[in-house]
Structure formats: structure tokens, C-alpha cells
Amino acid sequence: MEGNNRPVFISVIVPVYNTVEYLPRCVDSIRRQTYRNLEIILVDDGSTDTSGAMAEKFALEDKRVRVFHKENGGSSSARNLGIEKARGDYIGFVDSDDYIEPEMYERLLSVALSENLPMVQCSRDEIDDQGNLMENVCIPPEEPELWEDEKFMRELLMHRGDCSFCTKLIRTDLLKSHRFPEGELNEDFRLLIELLPQIPLTAILPQQDYHVFYRYGSNTRTRNKDEFPRVFMDIVNNADRAQELVAKEYPNLLKEAERFALYQRLDYMLHIPISMMNKKNTFYVQVCTYLKHHKKEIRTNPYLTKKNRQYLMLFAAMPVLVRKVHAKLKRLE
Hints:
With 333 residues, the chain is of the alpha/beta class. Helices cover 44% and strands 19% of the residues. The protein is built from 13 helices and eleven strands. The chain has helices at residues 23-31, 51-61, 75-85, 104-115, 149-157, 172-176, 187-195, 231-249, 254-271, 282-293, 295-300, 306-317, 319-332, and strands at residues 2-3, 6-7, 10-16, 38-45, 65-70, 90-93, 99-100, 119-128, 145-148, 168-171, 201-214. The strands form two sheets. Strands 3, 4, 5, 6, 7, 8, 9, 10 and 11 form a nine-stranded mixed sheet that branches. Strands 1-2 form a two-stranded antiparallel sheet. Strand 3 (10-16), helix 1 (23-31) and strand 4 (38-45) form a beta-alpha-beta unit. Helix 7 packs parallel to helix 8.
């Protein structure tokens, strides 16, 4: 495939942190891509296991593999370093415990070039740590679809769109002027909504070429009921950012953005440990205050379900009691 009379070059960025058990499967899946004109940028984010040494071994085996080592700073900082080092016309991302189908990048690039698109997205599935296929988080379309940026934003606000950059191939110039926010989770959503006004059309492909390995112990996944991942705070902050952006760029989506802000706070309230529901927790107090001041919106928003409204109104009135009852119901399940 050619662009400007030369073969198009792809950079695939893989942040690596203590995933020595899964890294071979990940890297092998990229090395086996049917589209060969690519580089694989492995960014060792201060691993304390032998992941860094394994990455160097891959570089000796395949000249397309480039390895960079840095102090631990999180996935976003590793991705940002990868963007700085990338030499490709397009950039893709793969998490080091996930893997991809051999045709993924050839398929994505073919559509990007034929339709002259700055971003193309495949579909994904999720596999748990027992090897079982999980329910789809994002439903693949039956046929390829072209989404305008406003439609993409709406699908994200309605929790139907895929914000992950791992399922996407994106033109490098868009990322060279933007970066993933460091020190935050839900970083893909934040960067994507910032980029969307610059991406008039995105192709959404039905093939589930990206495989997410749902590994407990990663940033957003935990079995410990007393842990409270900071992602639940970041999704609230990003919902507020989305509302601001929608007001400026997509005024037709104000009600969807309102629903999103309320729903993300509901998600926060349904997961916060009861021990953290006190006046010393400033963020928790802010969420409670927001719900109390937005009862009218809770009652009237057309995109909230009846169950959403009931829970939100109850949390606005008696949050600790509702959280205790909800926790008890979950235990009974």
C-alpha cells in the first residue's frame, strides 16, 4: 500500500510493564501481521521483572522491533514516549497483555487509504483470565460504517462507542500535536474527545481483530472490594470535560452529555467503598452535592433509564444507606 508514491509505514506502540508472561504472545501477534512495513516500539516502563530483557531479545530477532527503557511513569507516559520515537505515517497501540489478528493492520490501513481517513477502528472482544470469551463491551456493526465526529461523540456519550486507541489506526500528525494525559486513568476517552473535532469521519469495521485479555490486577480491574481504583474519579472529571466540549463543538448533544455526566457519577457511587463515604472525602462530597443540585435533570433527562433515575434520586437523598443496600444485594447475587 502506498501513500505519496511510497509504502505507508506504521508504528505500533506497546507500553510494557511487568508482563513477561504475556509479552511473547503480544509481540508475536504484531510480528505476524500480513502488512509487513511496520515498526514495533516496545517501551519498557521501568519493569521490575524480565520484561525489559525480553523486549531486547525480540529486537535482536526482528529488526523492526525498537526498544526504549524509562523510569516507571504509567501507560500514558510510555505511550507518549512511543509517539515521540515513532517514524510511521500511522500509529497503532497494543497493550502488552493483549494480542491481535494477523490481518488487523492491513485491513485498517486499506480502508484508511481508500477512504482518505485520519482514523479507522476495528472491533474487539474480551477474554477473561480463564480463557473464556466475555460479553461484548462494544457491539460490532454488521457491516463497515462511516461515523461523522458528532455521531462518534454521541455513541461515546451513550456508552456504545469504543474509546480505546488499541482498536484504532490513527494518522501520526494528529498525535504528534497531542499527548495522553499522564497520571490519569480513562486517558483514552479524554484524548479521543479532544481529537474528534479534527476527525470528520471514522470507519468502524466489524471484524473483532483486537483481543483484550481481561487480567485482574491491572489498573482498572480488581477483586478486592475494599480497593477503589482512581478510574472512578477520572471518569467523573472526564464527563465534565466532555460536557464543556459538547457545549462548544456539538450543541445538539447537550442532553446526551448531561446524561453522561449523571451516569458517570452513578457509576462512582455504586463502586465507592462505604468506608470512604464521609465528609473528609472532598471528591465524594462534590459528587453528592452535584446530584442534589441536579434533581430536575435526573427526573427529566430522556436518555436515563427508569432504574438510573431511581438510583440517582436515592443517592441524592441518602447515599450511604443506598450504597449499603446495593452492596448487600451484590453479595446475594
